[in-house]
Amino acid sequence: MWLDESIACFNSLQPSICEDDMLAISDICKALHLPQKTLAISNHIFFAAKAESKIEPDDVVLISSVINLACKICETLRPLEKIMHLASKHYSIEIDQSIMELYTTSINKTEIELSVVLDFNFEISEIYTRLERLCKEKQFDSVFSRRCWIMLNDIMQTPLSIYFTIDELLTCTIFTNYVASELKNEKTMDDVEMYEIFSEKYKLTTASFSCIEFMSNKLLELYSTSN
């Protein structure tokens, strides 16, 4: 039942995600020289905000709040004033000192609201550390590990991170790479059989094939639409 609910929530949220907002987060994080992890957590918080209909501040406040909170979680602090300036520039909004003071108050309030939506659970920030540890424990080669890292970055550009656990996200990342490797080696078997072999070999999670299949398909859709 939980999988059906997660899929329904994901499918209902997806159309409401504005590409310009995603671009704003990406561009601002790059301008601030923030690491990939902070960008990923910014996306995660943004998706959580969009899933919560009660949080509807204007674009500058929302994007600034999302990035500033992610910076706090990841301990990559940047001046809030600079974040606000970059956000207002992206949305072509002129701000003076008085507006900035109003924005600061709104951002502080929105950050608290976002933390409540996340239930003050910031465990998702450990996902990259967990992936790095798994790659070492399972002795993945450097090429496979690099592909997993890239794929995790891509997963974190989708709302999957707010509906599925870290274990499920990591399993999806590694399994999708595993399938690609097996196909490259011209091994033929159906997906269910391949997942059973994969699960027995790596013992990453108890997640069902249906769960991982849904996530993998969404990831592959992301690649197909970007080409």
What is the percentage of strand-forming residues?
Answer: under 5%
CATH class of the largest domain: Mainly Alpha
Helical content class: over 70%
Number of helices: 12
Shape: elongated
Mean pLDDT: 88
Going by CATH, what is the homologous superfamily of the largest domain? Cyclin-like
What is the CA-based Rg, rounded? 19 Å
CATH-scheme architecture of the largest domain: Orthogonal Bundle
Biggest beta sheet attributes? none
Q: What is the first-to-last residue Cα distance? A: 34 Å
CATH domain topology of the largest domain = Cyclin A, domain 1
**Tally of discrete structural domains:** 2
The tally of beta strands, per DSSP, is 0
Low-confidence stretches: none
Description:
- By secondary structure, the chain is an all-alpha fold.
- The chain has 2 domains: 13-121, Cyclin A, domain 1; 126-225, Orthogonal Bundle (Cyclin A, domain 1), CATH 1.10.472.
- The protein has 12 helices and no strands.
- The model has no long low-confidence stretch (mean pLDDT 88).
Write the layout of secondary structure elements.
Blueprint (H helix, E strand, L loop, with lengths): L1 H12 L5 H13 L4 H16 L7 H16 L5 H11 L6 H21 L9 H11 L4 H14 L4 H4 L2 H19 L6 H12 L6 H18 L1
